[in-house]
Amino acid sequence: MANKATSIKLFSFSTPQMRAFHLTWMAFFVCFFAWFACAPLMPVIKGEFGLTPAQIANINIAAVAITIIVRLVIGPLCDRYGPRKAYTGLLLLGALPVLGVAAAQTYESFLFFRLLIGAVGASFVITQYHTSVMFAPNVVGTANAAAAGWGNAGGGVVQSTMPMIMAAMVMLGVNETMGWRAALVVPGVLMLVMAFVYYRFTQDCPDGNYADLRAAGVALEGGKKGGWESFKLAAANYRVWLLFVTYGACFGVEIFIHNIAATYYVDTFKLSLPQAGLAAGSFGLLALFARALGGYVSDKVAYRGSLNSRVTLLFVMMIGEGFGLLMFSHAGSVAYAVASMLVFGLFTHMACGATYALVPFVDKRALGGVAGIIGAGGNVGAVAAGFLLKAVGNTQQTLSILGVMVAASALCALAARFSATTVEENKIAGAAA
Questions:
Q1: Distance between CA atoms of 221 and 249, rounded to whole angstroms?
Q2: CA quadruple 104, 107, 108, 112: dihedral positive or negative?
Q3: How far apart are CA 188 and CA 146, in angstroms?
Q4: What UniProt keywords apply to this chain's record, in alphabetical order (predicted)?
Q5: CA-to-CA distance for 226 and 371, rounded, in angstroms?
Q6: Alpha-carbon span 407 to 34, nearest angstrom
């Protein structure tokens, strides 16, 4: 595993490292697009099915609930079978409920498919795993954050694009009921195409595919077998659970905002569906640079300081996110709401990038297990936020409570500081890279 890339050559596709980098963010973009394709259309879907606020809350919770289980499983599967096969399988299987939700005729069937669609959210873990095994310590934070950030931008693009796709369908003569259904077919087809591309043009690590390397007796980062052994090693590490909490407080909030933003702008500020989509989409589009910025800054502070400088950066980002969320929750006008959303969104995305800039250093013997458990934390946070909204019954109050909880969770970041020995080992590895 000595052939990791020590630099990111953005315009190159000639090396397996850069092909993996570009295809992971593209695959994650498609998955994120499919994952939240229903969210900006919910005002229309709500009217067709006559959904109550409680039913909408159930749908939002379902969208992220199953992702917890799949993320826990998919990380160790990457250690066992390699990220190439794991991603291909997830794209193929995930396309089925994405296509199925377009055929839903009742609230129950819609809820069922929305639950299953949540599985594609596990694509994030594979994305982070694949870039972690392809890039050296001096750039791995930037690689992880950029790939995830550009993929996450699918959540912003989908907010503004899906209403436009639906509007185009209606202009072609399709009624509104068929319009949203036809629009939801688009992300399902994209996933099938991406599955073929990923399998054809990537490999598991710089030296080849896991099956071939194991047959040749080569030692891999995930251990000899991966799977359950990887999960047990990761679960025994307390830092994994501290970062599980911080990721729940940043990515969990991000997912929650994706689910409620469009409807929030329509209900609170009386915006039209396209206007609400553009306002909500601006939050997701921050991921184009903000998450990558979090990883990049983490690499830089680690180079000038130490591994624990990454921890301190995450703490600062979490505090900023908490205060920004409080600003957003008290916004009295649409202009102030959008401005404050962009402020807390910047800290949120950077905190996500800073978290996964730490992941490759937590336990190299169980990279998949670590990435999977921490990734699942994001969805636990989103589910918890969904239940909080359901209990409180008021979006603004829920956002205010979340702001306080996020700021408090920043203490978990400080508690995840590494020992002097680990800091020194990674300083030597960084210098060697």
A1: 28
A2: positive
A3: 24
A4: Membrane, Nitrate assimilation, Transmembrane, Transmembrane helix
A5: 13
A6: 31
pLDDT in tens, 97-140: 999 999 999 999 999 999 999 999 999 999 999 999 999 988 99
From CA 306, how far away is CA 312, in angstroms rounded? 10
CB 149 within 8 A of CB 395: no
Crossing angle of helices 273-285 and 140-171, in 10° steps, is: 170
Render pLDDT for 176-229 as a digit per residue (tens, 0 to 9): 888 999 999 999 999 999 999 999 999 999 999 999 998 888 877 655 555 678
Strand partners, 135: 5
SS3 208: strand
144 CB-side CA count, 13 A: 34
Distance separating alpha carbons of residues 348 and 327, to the nearest angstrom: 14
Per-residue pLDDT tens for 413-424?
999 998 887 777
pTM exceeds 0.90, yes or no: no
